[in-house]
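Researcher: Sequence recovery benchmark, item below. Answer with residues only.
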């Protein structure tokens, strides 16, 4: 409506410069005399009312565009604020992790366990695993936390497959779960673990932790005793293997 009012002021009738009540009705007779009549007030107001309605309808697309711009700008501001909020949480989380505040870190990140952000989720997986490793954590709680950590790592990977940290912590958490699922599951998971460590190294060749853990994986299967190799061959046609050179 405000836009329609502004447009109205810029039109000739809006500035009241129309000729007055005498309007040409048309040519009449062979002499070309102009036949005129005075319009009634209701006709003038009716015509103006119709014009205003027409102007209003023509202005609606512009009003819609203005509304679209306002909503778009509001959405951008909200998205930007959300990004800044996530970055602030990540900074706090990294500070607590470096400070060794494991419990505080876990309490902070569990507030955002429904997040869709991969960076938050893999950090939560790490924090859950770290809580599970504390001496004061009971065996029952430890098991719950290990599976909880795997779920967070899995979601982080689903949200961002280009995150080296998501691949790394997914591999670590799968390895932990193997302790509760028996030798067959542990050997089967070894293939998955290796795959994700290799992917983490590919995405970030400078990450020392991924390289170290890949080395541990190779060493574990390089020094596997003969009886374990035999069991592995019974369970799998081609069990995982490695060499000391690798």
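Model:
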């Amino acid at each position: 409506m405000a836009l329609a009012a502004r447009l109205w002021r810029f039109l000739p009738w809006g500035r009241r410069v129309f000729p007055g009540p005498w309007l040409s009705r048309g040519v009449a007779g062979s002499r070309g005399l102009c036949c005129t009549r005075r319009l009634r007030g209701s006709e003038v107001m009716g015509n103006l009312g119709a014009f205003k309605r027409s102007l209003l309808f023509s202005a609606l697309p512009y009003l819609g565009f203005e509304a679209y711009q306002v909503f778009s700008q509001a959405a951008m501001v909200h998205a930007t604020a959300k990004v800044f909020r996530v970055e602030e949480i990540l900074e706090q989380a990294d500070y607590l992790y470096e400070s060794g505040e494991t419990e505080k870190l876990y309490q902070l990140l569990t507030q955002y366990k429904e997040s869709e952000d991969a960076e938050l989720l893999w950090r939560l997986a790490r924090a859950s695993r770290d809580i599970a490793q504390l001496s004061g954590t009971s065996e029952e709680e430890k098991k719950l936390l290990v599976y909880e950590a795997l779920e967070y790592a899995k979601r982080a990977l689903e949200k961002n497959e280009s995150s080296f940290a998501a691949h790394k912590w997914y591999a670590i958490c799968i390895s932990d779960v193997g302790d509760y699922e028996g030798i067959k599951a542990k050997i089967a998971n070894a293939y998955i673990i290796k795959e994700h460590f290799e992917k983490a190294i590919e995405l970030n060749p400078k990450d020392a932790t991924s390289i170290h853990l890949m080395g541990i994986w190779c060493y574990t299967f390089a020094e596997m005793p003969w009886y374990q190799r035999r069991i592995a061959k019974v369970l799998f046609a081609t069990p995982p293997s490695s060499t000391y050179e690798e």
